[in-house]
Amino acid sequence: MRLHRLEVEGFGPFRSRQVVDFDAFADDGIFLIAGRTGAGKSSILDAVCFGLYGGVPRYDGGEKRLRSDHCEPDDPSEVVVEFSTPAGRFRVTRSPEYLRPAKRGGGMTKQASAVALDEWTDAGWVGRAARAVDVAGELDEILQLSREQFLQVILLAQNRFSEFLLAGSRDRQALLRRLFGTQRFEDVQARFDERRREAEQTLGARLATVNARIDEAEQLVITSGLSDDVTAPTEDAAVSGPPSIEGRLEALRRARARADYRAERRASEQVEAEKRAADADAALATAREEKHAQGERDRARTALERLDADAPSIDEARAELSAARAAEAVRSTITAAARAQAAVTVAAEDEQRSRAVWDAFEVTVDGDLDGWVAARTRESGSWERARELEGQAPALEAELQSADEAVAAATAHLEAGEAERAALPAAIAALTAERDEKRRLADRVGDARAAQEEAGARRTAAREAERLQKTQASTELELADATAVHAAAQTNLAQLRQRRIDGMSGELASSLRPEHPCPVCGSLEHPAPATHADPVSPDDIAEAEKARDVAAQRERELSAASSSLRAELAAVSARADGRSVDQAETEYEAAAAAHALSLAAADELTVLDVQLSGLVARVDQLEAEKTEGMAALARAREQHALLQQRSTEAHTLIAEARGSFDTVAERLDDMATRISAARAVAQAMAERLRRTQALAEAEAERDEAIADSPFDDVTAAEHALRSAATQEALDARIAEHAVQREKERAILFDLELRTLPEEPIDLTPVEEASKAARAIWTDAVDAAARAAGTAERLGGLIDSATAEHARTATDAAEFEVLQNLADTIAGRGANTRKMTLETFVLAAELEEIVEAANRRLHDMSTGRYQLQHSDALAARGAASGLGIVVSDAFTGQTRPPQSLSGGETFLTSLALALGLAEVVTARAGGIRLDTLFIDEGFGSLDGDTLDVAMRTLDELRQGGRTVGVISHVEAMQEQIPAQLTVRALPNGPSIIEAR
Predict the structure, then answer these.
(1) If 0-12 CB within 10 Å is exposed, 13-18 middle and 19+ buried, where does residue 30 land?
(2) Residue 982: strand pairing partners
(3) 8 Å CB contact between 28 and 60
(4) pLDDT below 50 — which residues of the chain?
(5) Which helix (H) or strand (E) is 630 found in, with range?
(6) Residue closest to 222 by CA, chosen among 207, 211, 233
(7) Is 49 helix (H, G, I), strand (E, B) or coil?
């Protein structure tokens, strides 16, 4: 990663926009950030950290005073960081949250924080993300460093330089955990502890289940009386110790055998009791049947006596039924005579009512009524035409009104036609001008189509260019990853080869045998053979070379693909003619709109020609309509005159037909009522005469039928008449009496043959015997069920307890393994150094860090000091494994880092920080660090030590790396010509000057 440019405005001590061009120091390789104390040197690094990660280390846990106190309310606050990685060149623009004047209503409002990520392409800066969460995700993939790692390997911030060297084991572990992300090992420890607890709970629950089921089975044995050798726990047993589970299970199995034997005995007793109860029930059923037959016999005797007593009333009913059937023969003639008499009475009453209605009219009739009715009917017929005309009078008036309106409409139509004909010449002139304009636009269709096709081609090319840019960016990222993989494979191969060379002596020593000559020196004695602690085989070297070749091939393929994409992108960009997708879309839409406008004008031209022809034709049409309108006006006036004549004739005829009535209809209704009353009187008189004649004929027929019947007169016959329901009831009663008597005689005959006793049968002794036998059977069933249930329940408890007991052995073994493993991972039990799994992993990382630091510390301290990783047990039982001590070659002893002087502490901290940076960089995927900042006080160093530090810093810039050092030491200002000076102005804000 390399920083290129930094822009700061309204941030920290900087009010106006300050620009730092880091590329200007690339040739020097090292530059100094100088300035007076408090001027804002460290704020440059704060701005870099804020731009990339949105936070500043010095404000962690406190108020984040990021906005400059020198800003006016309307001044902006912004940090822009431009950097590059193998993935490309990027720019981050970030603003903190601050208060600004409200645009409405006065007062202050909160300006939300903002961030944007841009990527440099051939087309310039292109936005990649604009939300905080999206920018953070993109930067994680691009930088491949967390903020803690960035601060430890690129930006060595003030007051954090010697933190790692002087920290205790707990603080050092927290720092290493953040850098190497080893929280997952703590999660592994927690998961194993949880599994241990779960296994312990499972084992305890299973043992509790076994004891509970054995206790339940023993209690069941005691309560069931099966406890010959199974007893409840006693005080003696508590003193001598509880019996084993196997012993208790064996005693329960013997009790189970006794329970099975008892269940078999109870089942046999149940069968015998059931047989005796069945015999008693059969005897009771026989006694009950005989008692029922005895009662049925007595009932039949009583019923037969009652039926014989009812014989006289049955004879009377039989005689009544016979007389009713004889009277039924004359029922119709008697009924007919009665109906004829009633009809004569009704006809006389109708005649009286009709005559009363007719007399109310006080009409004198000369002759019969039928002649008067005929004369009045003929007279009223002549008034019907007048009534029709009277009903049609409103319609006739409406027609006359319509005729008036038709005359007025015809006159108005003629006037409108004249007005339209006068306006047509102006309309024809305007439409002609519009048609000429549309023809001009329609003639440009070909040019507009060509322009649209060219714009479409540029739009397609712009879209393809945008797609190729994204594809190229993705390929460049893959190429960067492949380059990193290739570099890592190459580094691994080099390390393996070095380890192979370093281990040659150990490999030769491992092949030495007593009394065999050494292949190197030929000696038969081998007093101090080298150890082979880090073996590397030729197969390891071959595999590493194979991995290196595969990574190189992948890098070459991606490089070729990237070149091809760049060439294709250049060709497509040329076809796009420098247009972006948005520009090409806009031009295409404009060309398409112009083409569509020309096409629409061509279509409208035809319509306008048709409209113009229509207007010309309309002139001729209006002339024809004028002639036709004048004829229509003449016809309307003629129709109006005819309707006026019909109205006058109708009014004359209606007035004659009304007479003294208001309307013709009222006169006709009055005459119809009088005619109806006269007809009713005539019809009533004729009906009365006809009914009187029918009565005489019915009475003669009735008297003849009575004479032929067994009855003396009509009264006797009517007395004997019965309804059909009564006759059916009498017949049913007679038949039921006969049938019931025969039925009871048959029942009594069969029962008399059984010679049943006359005394009532007593069922009490037999019922008591049956009840006693059933009670014995019920007790036997309950006893058998209890015995079987006890045996089954006891067997189930024993089987369940046995199975659970068998499973406890497996659970106990699993729990022991999990407990030992969890204790080892958590630093308990046999882990005498109390190192957790995470501490063990971090200790391995710390060993590499110390090894990397010693490569520089040896030169910086002229061979006196070396750092050593210490896993000695800490005081008061604290966890160990992450200690660091300093080995002093002058004394041959180790001592704590706190015993070093200020200058020695600085050199040792610098070496350790650089070693830590190397290891963290390797763990982050082998990324290349092209920019490094060191913000630490060099003022504690003497001249010689400062020279050593400068040589170390000079070594860091090898390979194209740029190193920025923050210091106000004058000696360093003399040795480092490339400088950034942070200077505070008299009015407060600071500015940045480069030289």
Answers:
(1) buried
(2) 35, 992
(3) no
(4) 234-241
(5) helix 581-658
(6) 233
(7) helix
